[in-house]
Design brief:
Elements: E1 11-13, H1 16-19, E2 25-30, H2 41-55, E3 60-65, H3 70-82, E4 85-91, H4 99-106, E5 110-114, H5 116-120, E6 138-140, H6 148-155, E7 167-171, H7 176-184, E8 190-194, H8 203-210, E9 219-222, H9 235-248, H10 257-269, E10 278-283
Length: 299
């Protein structure tokens, strides 16, 4: 499993000027430092899946995602390192491949394009079967790494999270990372999820069903900071990212972590935390997705 050194992820304090001492401490877990391609939390969600595939002799990993999916490229890269063939079932047809899909191809991933209608059925049992009949010994990993091994892998993030934090902030896509973190931290530690899409609240039921029963408290999901929807952004968000970089010397990504930190900041300014709180924000990576806005960023 030695393709990534877990020690590269470190905890760094945010600037007191940035959080204006409204809480006792605010730190960032820099999962973005783990690897330039395998975006932070993706490695944690994939690692037990890959180990399982290797130990049980699976030759092919099949997964799915959209054209900008960090999970797809992370799977392509990781599978190659593990010597496993990877196949990505991609939502929608493309006249030109996105940079993410180009990168997947370069890592040897076989891409299979399905219509948005076909993709809608992805949660059905054996959905992937008809698309991948020509491959053998397949382990199917759902979109976002959202399976039991994905959640158990994300739970390993607790190795970085000490007991003194009162709150843990995490960006949410499939919510697999948030669920893993909720399951593996102390019950009184409050886990705050920030969904970057409109109507992210639909995930509440899913999270509730997948956290351990005794941990189904002290977690909250907000979709208030979506900036128009998944992948959408405006000048205010870009300004926030540039400011955040100036004050903390940490880059954020445009899809997930910028909206999370914007939300955390807004909550701070609305005095939604107490002065004694200690907050850990999880930087889940995704920086390679900034290519589309690179010219607007100072980093
Ligand atoms: C995928 C991703 C997430 C979302 O993780 P989930 O486990 O799917 O909720 C958050 N941040 C970044 C940078 C990501 O790439």
């Amino acid at each position: 499993m030695g393709i990534i050194d877990d020690r590269l992820a470190v905890i760094e304090p945010l600037s007191k000027f940035w959080y204006q001492k409204k809480v006792a401490a605010m730190d960032m877990l820099r999962l973005d430092l783990l690897h330039p391609v395998i975006s932070g939390n993706k490695w944690f969600k994939l690692r037990l899946n890959m180990k399982y595939a290797q130990e049980h002799g699976f030759k092919t990993i099949v997964t799915s995602g959209g054209g900008f999916s960090n999970h797809l490229i992370a799977t392509a890269y990781t599978a190659r390192k593990f010597g496993i063939t990877s196949v990505g079932i991609v939502r929608g047809k493309y006249d030109r491949l996105t940079p993410t899909l180009e990168a997947c191809k370069a890592e040897g991933m076989e891409l299979i394009f399905v219509s948005k209608e076909e993709y809608k059925d992805r949660h059905e049992l054996n959905w992937e079967k008809e698309f991948v009949q020509h491959f053998d010994e397949i382990l199917f990993v759902p979109e976002g790494g959202a399976n039991e091994m994905g959640r158990a892998g994300a739970a390993l993030l607790n190795r970085y999270i000490n007991d003194s934090y009162t709150h843990i902030a995490v960006a949410v896509g499939s919510s697999t990372t948030m669920i893993g973190v909720r399951n593996s931290t102390l019950v009184h530690q409050i886990v705050l999820g920030f969904a970057p899409m409109k109507d992210g609240a639909y995930l509440n039921g899913y999270i509730s069903n997948h956290v351990h029963q005794d941990k189904n408290v002290n977690w909250r999901l907000t979709d208030k900071y979506h900036f128009g929807g998944f992948g959408k952004w405006n000048k205010k968000l870009l300004d926030f990212m540039n400011n955040f970089y100036t004050e903390n010397k940490m880059p954020l990504d445009i899809i997930y972590t910028s909206k999370m930190m914007y939300g955390v900041h807004d909550m701070l300014m609305n005095n939604e935390f107490s002065v004694g709180d200690k907050i850990l924000c999880i930087h889940s990576g995704g920086l390679q997705g900034n290519v589309s806005v690179q010219r607007e960023l100072i980093y």
